[in-house]
Amino acid sequence: MTDQQTDLEAALERVVQAAREHLAAVRTAQGRVDDDDVWRAYVALNNASVAYDELLLDAFGEVTPWDVEVIDADEADERFGVGIGGVDGAEPADPYPGVISVRQRRDYRVPSVAALLRVAEAARRAGAGPAEEPDDEPVGSVGEAVLELLQNGDGSLGALDVPELEPLDGILTVSEVASPLDPAAYDADDAAGPFRPGPQDRLLGRFDEHPFPDDDADDELDDEAPDEAVTADEGPVAGSGPAGAGASGAAASDGRGPGR
């Protein structure tokens, strides 16, 4: 085996090992946001993939399907920060005095009830753990199907990005509230109470979501300026889908602030 092929085999082993370490870090973090070990493992996997891709190109003129570039972890930390405490952990504490409440509604049309029930039953079977027996009980209603998709997804509205649900308009509000939500304070059949603004709640901003237009209308929209979101205390910010709140590529957003 030539030195070039030996290097290629070694680079592939580093990719596999980095992928295992990334998976282990993700499992350990259990969904924790901005976990430093997950970030470092992600960088290692990314850079190992880049190195393997370059060696494969040099050896055989072939490439992998991974469209990645080298990440300098320290430079990225300086640019984006690493969560509470900053890059070196010495940043002073600056907790926000209030509680921020994000409330979202998006409507959907169901083109085929039978198709939605099938995809929900498939999600239920796929969501069964290795030690669990798959639940073969049929999904009995549209509401149960939607809940099944959410439960077996990540819990956000992104779990509903399936062809069996056609997204319609939606709305998202960001408010400052007097106290955090206590789900036990509301009856199980109280659909409005948890979302009803309290007397001391203050609306900070709002996004209106609209499904993307048909391709035929693209030409008409090319010349339009992007919408902006306006907040009550921060002025205009770029309009976009609400990150981290279940927004998906299926909708465009029109930001609005209070009083607009």
Question: Span from first to last CA?
Answer: 70 Å
Q: What is the domain total for the residues? A: 3
- Beta percentage is 15-25%
- In angstroms, what is the radius of gyration? 23 Å
> What is the string of SSEs from the N terminus onward?
HHHEHHEEHEEE
Shape: extended
Give the helix level as a range of percent: 25-40%
Report the strand count: 6
How many H/I helical runs?
Answer: 6
Strands in their spatial order, largest beta sheet: 1-2-3-6
Residue runs with pLDDT of under 50 for 5 or more positions: 234-251
Largest sheet: 4 strands, antiparallel
What does the average pLDDT come to? Answer: 80
Structural class call reads alpha+beta
Per-chain topology:
Blueprint: H1 3-29, H2 36-60, H3 73-80, E1 99-109, H4 113-126, H5 142-152, E2 166-177, E3 202-211, H6 218-221, E4 228-231, E5 235-238, E6 251-256
Antiparallel strand pairs: 1-2, 2-3, 3-6, 4-5
Helix pairs in contact: 1-2, 4-5
Task: Describe the protein's architecture and organization.
The chain contains 6 helices and 6 strands; from the N terminus they run H-H-H-E-H-H-E-E-H-E-E-E. With 260 residues, it is of the alpha+beta class. It folds into 3 domains: 3-80, no CATH class; 96-108 and 166-260, no CATH class; 112-163, no CATH class. The protein has a 4-stranded antiparallel β-sheet, with no helix packed on it. It has a two-stranded antiparallel sheet with strand order 4-5. Helix 1 (3-29) runs antiparallel to helix 2 (36-60). It is extended. The protein starts with a helix and ends with a strand.
